[in-house]
Design brief:
The structure holds two protein chains of two kinds.
Chain A lengths: L4 E10 L2 E11 L4 E5 L6 H8 L7 E6 L7 H6 E4 L11 H11 L4 H10 L15 H13 L5 E4 L8 H16 L3 E6 L11 E6 L2 E6 L1 H8 L3 E7 L4 H8 L2 E4 L2 E6 L4 H10 L4 E7 L3 H9 L9
Parallel strand pairs in A: 3-7, 3-8, 5-6, 6-7
Antiparallel strand pairs in A: 1-2, 1-4, 8-9, 10-12, 10-13, 11-12
Chain B lengths: L1 H17 L2 H20 L10 H25 L4 H6 L2 H5 L5 H35 L6 H29 L2 H29 L4 H4 L1 H8 L1 H11 L4 H4 L4 H4 L6 H24 L3
Helix pairs in contact in B: 1-6, 2-3, 2-6, 3-6, 3-7, 3-8, 3-11, 6-7, 7-8, 7-11, 7-14, 11-14
The chains are: A alpha/beta, B mainly alpha.
Chain lengths: 302, 276
Amino acid sequence: MTALLTVADVSKRFGRVEALTGLTLSVAPGERVALLGHNGAGKTTLLRLILGFLRPDAGSILVGDHAPDSTAARRIVAYLPENVAFPKALTGRELIGFYARLRNVGIDDAMAALERVGLGHAADRASGNYSKGMRQRLGLAQALLGAPRLMLLDEPTSGLDPLSRRDFYALVDKVAAAGTAVLLSSHSLSEIEARTDRVAILREGRLVADAPLSRLQAEAALPVRIRVRAQPDTIDEVSDRLGGTRVNGQTVELVFSQTEKMRRLAAISALGSLVTDFDLTQPSLDDIYVHFSRPAGEGNAS
Amino acid sequence: MTSHVIAVARQEFRIAARNRWVLLAVLILLVFALVLGLLGSAPSGSLGVGRLAITVASLATLSVYLVPLLALLLGFDAIAGEFERGTLPLVLATPIARGSVLLGKFLGHLTIIALAIVIGFGIAGAAVMVLSGEGASGLIPLARLIASSVALGAVFLAVSYVVSAGTTQVGTSAAVAVAVWLAAVVLYDLGLLGALVLDTGGGFAQGAFPWMLLASPADAFRLFNLAALDVGNTATGLAGAAEGLPFPPALCVASLALWLVLAFLAALRALYRLEP
């Protein structure tokens, strides 16, 4: 299938700051892509370029087959900005009706979108009294209007509690399953809970990774960490036989690569009753993200 | 496109109604118009002109100050506020054209101004008509006053959008809007007055002065209303100029129209330059 969003070799600078450099990225229909990066890495700039709010200094962007600032492109795109805001005096029903009219969607479909994000009960309350999570859901409801083919979600789950976050991703999964391309930004891999097909990582305006999570995990080849505990009088013997570093009077820490895992475990179990307990820590999603988003040359001894 | 414009206009009106802006605008104009109408026209019997005509003349002077202020107050936040609060990207990401956003806001705000003017001036005019027992003879000047006041409001609404879209910050926009009001309504006239005082030979009064009145939307509005009334000389000092105008009073309407179109285009340009 051809890509719904094509970003080809795009650069953008603001004055002397290079916000994006030679960025190439594409999203296919039904695909969920996470755009990761620190604050200021260029995520929001990229989304604003895709929306046609900004023009690239170099390179090209196509939404469907259209230029980003064309009406045709904006019929395809739905957008949920970071820190979504609404006129406080208006109710959820009035607001969703407003965006529905702008998208040529009937009021029944608009109310259905409101129900879909679980805001039906609050439809007649002023949005100024909504919680952050409810505002975010109202934002998502307006992004669902008119079955958009490309959804751009800017840090959609920051500030949401874990339960609403789970609901949110369940909804995104449904939308993607129906064929919508989803590009969502976040500042951490753990926040998106590995709920995307592909992860693109931005660092200082450059794309430093663009692959499925499993491949990033393999590429990063981050070490496994084991902490072995023993009695104070046996800790020296344990430390001598396993190697590793003493953390305190009764704990030894071992750091080694994934391929060594089984051999090390065998060595630990060979110690029998000398070992009283142990913890194994696999590299977390955040460790993988840090590995890719750290500037080159800083090493990756984590 | 039309439905987009209507959607934005309805939204703007709804927000203003909910924030009591509509009520406030109507009340302000109504109270001032009633005070001027009932108190201001009391001594007219000795002048031999109709009370309603006197009332229209004083309401025109009220309009010159109040209507631009009202329009600037309604409009200074229109773009800058949405930009600052972050509601603009959501709207501009939909298929609506930026021109439709501006036109919708304009129509929504203009409805509020028109409502305030029609209710305020209408009730004050009706009260004077009933009290003086003059009948319907003063209706045409009153209707002219109401229509031209709405036009004046339209001009300053468009100007306020230029300020709002040009500054993109609510605080700055408010300050500039106040400055615009002072300059256009107060300082410009003071400057002309000063020039008239210094003008010993009378060349300025005969030459540039009427054209400079025409160039200002506030003065063009005043000229248009006073030139059509016979009360000019008795009611205000200004209309002495209206009698010897080197152009037909209808040109004042053209001045307002030109200001409206130019300001709207400038606001449109500023809005299209915005990067939300």
